[in-house]
Amino acid sequence: MKFIEKMFKSKMKSSASNSENQKDVNHIFLSKSLEKNINLIKKTLGESSDIVIREFFAGEDGKIKIGVIYTDGLADKTLVQTFILEPLMLEMRKTNLSANILSKKNSFEILKNYVIPKGDMKDVSDFEYLFTQLLSGNTIILIDSYNKGIAVDSRGWESRDVTEPTSQTVIRGPKEGFTETLRTNTALIRRKIKDPSLRIEAKQIGRRTKTDICIIFIKGVANDKIVKEVHKRLDRIDIDGILESGYIEELIQDEVYTPFPTMINTERPDSVAANLLEGRIAILVDGTPFVLIVPALFTDFFKSAEDYYHRFCFSSLVRIIRYFSFFITLLTPSIYVAVTTFHQEMLPTPLLISIAAQREGVPFPAVFEALLMELAFEILREAGVRMPRAAGAAISIVGALVLGEAAVMAGIVSPAMVIVVSLTAISSFVIPSYNLSITIRILRFLFMILGATFGLYGISLGLIALVLHLCSLRSFGIPYMAPMAPFNLDDQRDTIFRLPHYRIFSRPHLISQKNIIRQQSPLIAKPTPPKDYE
């Protein structure tokens, strides 16, 4: 043990020394010598082939030495050539510009105002900021005899076009989804909410990846305490890299050891806009189309964006079906195992005789049948996801049919068990949230074991423990089971049922505790039929 501790401490010291060396290099300020600056850039980046360094002499007499550095593949070459290199080489031949740059201290202001026709330009004074801008796709301009530089926005990498979301499809509603480009995603939200109170605050997380992250909320609608808590939790993250929003979700959630998701993730801009209008906060991560929304409630995972595009009666019916499917998926196999094992007297005599006849040649107990079939279905579902798209659906469907039929013919499982597993599998696809579906898949096995061990009493105890666990969860301080527990009558307008839009005139009370009213009085907003024409 002492040897392991020594090895661990030595590794920690070596990693700390490496990080300190990197930190020392990053915090070096720019030198007045252009040659020294470029040599340090080459040394730090290891002579990388994608780093383009262009040195040239500008000005009327060629007395101004300039260095232009950009990253090939991240910067737009046409933009660099047209808006940076050509103005520096041609415009600076004018006598007055050359003289001003050589003689005055505000030379970079002259470049910004008279030479480079670009909007977004930032001053660079240290190498840490220089490397961040350079490796983000911006172009760095350095001038000899000046310990300062300019970072010009020239990002232009290849990106995926805005297409229909693949994980949250709808029949009626917008067909656009987020992409892997952060600025495209913020623009999609701006198109939905043209309000000057919409705030987009940027951060960078990850010591090495320096991933761009945006926090979006509506000032005056979102709870200021929750906004501060989001900033606090994000600032607390100290990790090498953030590659997807799932990293952020695990690092800032209230409760780690729970199967239930406490954050909403979506790739639909209309869903994000609707949640922002309710007072929630969106977290966008560069490089992924999935946006996080906080705080999240248990009932939010049964809602779909399409619920608000159809008539309220149909949306309410669909929501009831989703809740019913939740209990079918969670409890059907366990109830079947419990009833056939311990509580046969609860079944009608003809049904009991039919099930007994089906199970006459089955050598395994009901719980083993259920676990075997559920495990086989999970394997088929995972295989369908991982297989190539052209063959995935065919393999999952054909595999399920062939496997189920062969298992019944071989006498391994009974036909009733195949029906139970099939009903459970179909019901699991009704729930809109994939994260909640994963949770149900995990809990289903636990309830089957409880049903096989203690019968319906075990299932009842499991449900009590499940409800207690759900009531103990929080999402950024908001009770997870709200508005059920604590119960709020006003918020029931858009929970299990969805009332007409003119009746949903207030935002969720626990989420947005100010500016609650979102529309005029329901009596005024109610549509009135026109009078008959005489």
What can you tell me about this protein's structure?
The protein is of the alpha+beta class. The chain folds into 3 domains: 20-152, no CATH class; 182-296, no CATH class; 312-479, no CATH class. The chain has 18 helices and 12 strands. It has helices at residues 2-26, 34-45, 77-90, 95-103, 107-115, 127-134, 182-192, 224-235, 245-252, 269-277, 312-341, 349-358, 366-386, 389-409, 415-428, 434-454, 456-472, 522-525, and strands at 51-58, 64-71, 121-124, 139-143, 149-152, 198-205, 211-218, 264-266, 281-285, 291-294, 474-475, 478-479. The strands form 3 sheets. A 5-stranded antiparallel sheet has the order 1-2-4-5-3, with helices on both faces. Helix 4 (95-103) packs antiparallel against helix 5 (107-115), helix 13 packs across helix 15 and helix 16 runs antiparallel to helix 17. The chain is elongated, with a radius of gyration of 31 Å. The termini are far apart. 31% of the residues are buried. Residues 14-23 have low confidence and may be disordered.
User: DSSP helix count?
Assistant: 18
Determine Rg (CA atoms, Å): 31 Å
Biggest sheet statistics: 5 strands, antiparallel
Helix and strand run: HHEEHHHEHEEHEEHHEHEEHHHHHHHEEH
Mean pLDDT: 85
SS content category: alpha+beta
Which regions have little confidence, pLDDT < 50, spanning 5+ residues?
A: 14-23
- For the record, the count of structural domains works out to 3
Order of strands side by side in the largest beta sheet? 1-2-4-5-3
Number of strands: 12
Q: In one word, what is the shape? A: elongated
**Can you give the helix content as a percent range?**
40-55%
Percent in strands: 5-15%
The N- and C-terminal alpha carbons lie at a distance of 97 Å
